[in-house]
Write a structure and sequence with these properties.
The chain has about 300 residues and is an all-alpha fold. The chain has one domain: Farnesyl Diphosphate Synthase (Orthogonal Bundle), CATH 1.10.600. It is built from 14 helices and no strands.
Length: about 300
């Protein structure tokens, strides 16, 4: 390629569909769901807050999560050129430095939107974006170690999104019980991310990415993931009972029991069945989040 043609490629703007693909809409659901759970858990009537709730959902999904995806693809572009050349950046559909530009622009837009939703939402957004950049960008590049990388994603996608939803509805710092539950479900999400890493064991091994399946081996990593997912939910059940919500606690407990039954089958062949468990057990996990959110909403003193 000549110097002139290279310059033209760098100057060419990506098409809108390529930018949308870069932001990966399919990944927006978890933080949007967690935001919704947080909004429900605050126990506030929706009333005239529909507008800020919609804005908050956009912040959690298309903006902050979208930013994290653009950042990740930019800093993984050389690896993707080998393993997944069809992706927007290595395929040239998002040419030149446009991937980085989108990541930076979406970071700025996220901060501007967050600033309109109050100080607590803004603070949570700053932390979420910092984790998103630290996960993919050097020098930290947390994704290279499963312990740190999974924790960053869990807190960004679950805990901070839940906190943001509650803060938007309360227009204040959420109740400590809401924050505690958000932290617990974030810890459980660490296990979800471990199972998600099973699909890339070979590639991670070659590229030196120390995911937990690479570090511990598939069997041990799967057992750890199951424990990490189950224990926080068990604590949630105990807390709901202590907070006077036994019926909701029973529903969460039934969902956890079903997950434990599915985990037994998962552990028989974790490499083959991790995708299956993601479609079954994780569905029960996120439904338990919503049940817990309704339980919190009904606790005396949560809504003010």
């Amino acid at each position: 390629m000549t110097k002139g043609s290279s310059s033209l490629t760098l100057a060419r703007r990506p098409a809108l569909p390529a930018v949308v693909e870069l932001l990966k809409p399919i990944t927006w659901f978890p933080p949007m769901w967690a935001f919704g759970c947080g909004a429900v858990s605050a126990g506030q009537p929706l009333g005239d807050r529909i507008g800020v709730v919609v804005l908050g959902i956009a912040l959690a999904g298309p903006l902050v999560c979208g930013t994290s995806q653009a950042v990740n693809d930019w800093f993984d572009r050389h690896v993707d050129a080998i393993n997944e050349p069809h992706r927007p950046i290595p395929s040239g559909r998002v040419p030149g430095t446009w991937g980085l530009r989108v990541a930076v622009a979406w970071t700025v837009v996220s901060l501007l939107v967050a600033a309109t939703l109050g100080a607590w939402v803004f603070g949570a957004t700053v932390l979420g974006l910092a984790l998103a950049w630290a996960y993919s960008a050097p020098p930290l590049r947390l994704k290279r170690n499963g312990w740190w990388g999974n924790a960053a994603v869990g807190f960004c996608y679950e805990g901070l999104a839940w906190f943001t939803g509650a803060a938007v509805m309360a227009a204040a710092l959420p109740d400590p019980r809401i924050i505690l539950v958000a932290v617990l479900y974030s810890l459980g999400a660490h296990g979800i991310m471990t199972l998600n890493d099973f699909k890339a064991i070979e590639g991670d091994t070659r590229m030196g990415v120390r995911s937990l399946p690479v570090q511990l081996g598939p069997e041990r990593a799967a057992k750890l993931a199951c424990v990490v997912m189950a224990l926080p939910q068990l604590v949630v059940v105990g807390l709901l009972i202590a907070w006077g919500q036994p019926i909701f606690a029973a529903v969460v407990a039934v969902g956890l029991a079903a997950q434990l039954a599915l985990m037994v089958r998962l552990l028989d062949d974790p490499r083959a069945r991790a995708p299956w468990y993601n479609a079954t057990g994780i569905t029960l996990y996120v439904l338990g989040m919503l049940v817990t959110a309704f339980a919190l909403a009904g606790i005396d003193g949560i809504a003010s």
